[in-house]
């Protein structure tokens, strides 16, 4: 599986750093929603779902967490700990986030508004959908 990590250009000077996010420039889709996860309790696993259509970019703007991506055939784990890296999570990717540092803030840019209908929260159903898609090819 190809993991898409966008390197975000750091601007700034001796006062500190600044990163700008612009859709269709360093964010490869129109930005329709921004949300952030913080205050995640120790030992908690978040995510545990896929999306039918949603595309997202995920940035650890502070702290770190581990990220699992699963496309139904392969699983990849990575550490998100760099505010200058954006992880692209495409549709139909199972994701889990865990090992959050106490100070972790994950910022997420999404290409659509919140819609619970777009979630696949059952792993078995997700795998069956992936198999169905690969049979069609
Ligand atoms: C994802 C990962 C990285 C809203 O009302 N609006 C929103 O835009 C979102 C994202 C969530 N919510 C509500 C729905 C739940 O009652 O906030 C609550 C927590 O959401 P959820 O359990 O889905 O959170 P995570 O951390 O498991 O997953 C979230 C996103 O939902 C998901 O799309 O990819 O972060």
Automatic annotation (TrEMBL):
Using the record's annotation, list all stretches that form the Sugar 3,4-ketoisomerase QdtA cupin domain.
1-129
* Keywords assigned by UniProt, alphabetized: Isomerase
A Pfam family annotated for this chain is FdtA
Q: Which GO terms describe its molecular function?
A: isomerase activity
> Which Gene3D superfamilies does this UniProt record tie to the protein?
Jelly Rolls (2.60.120.10)
Q: What is this protein called?
A: dTDP-6-deoxy-3,4-keto-hexulose isomerase
């Amino acid at each position: 599986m190809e993991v898409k990590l966008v390197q975000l250009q750091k601007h700034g000077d001796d006062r500190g750093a600044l990163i700008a996010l612009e859709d269709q420039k360093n964010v490869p889709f129109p930005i329709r929603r921004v949300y952030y996860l913080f205050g995640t309790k120790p030992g908690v696993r978040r995510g545990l779902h896929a999306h039918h259509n949603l595309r997202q970019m995920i940035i650890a703007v502070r702290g770190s967490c581990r990220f699992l991506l699963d496309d139904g055939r392969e699983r990849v784990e990575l550490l998100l700990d760099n505010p200058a890296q954006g992880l692209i999570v495409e549709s139909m990717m199972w994701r889990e986030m865990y090992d959050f540092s106490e100070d972790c803030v994950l910022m997420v840019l999404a290409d659509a508004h919140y819609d619970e209908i777009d979630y696949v929260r059952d792993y078995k159903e997700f795998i069956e959908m992936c198999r169905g898609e690969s049979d069609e090819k």
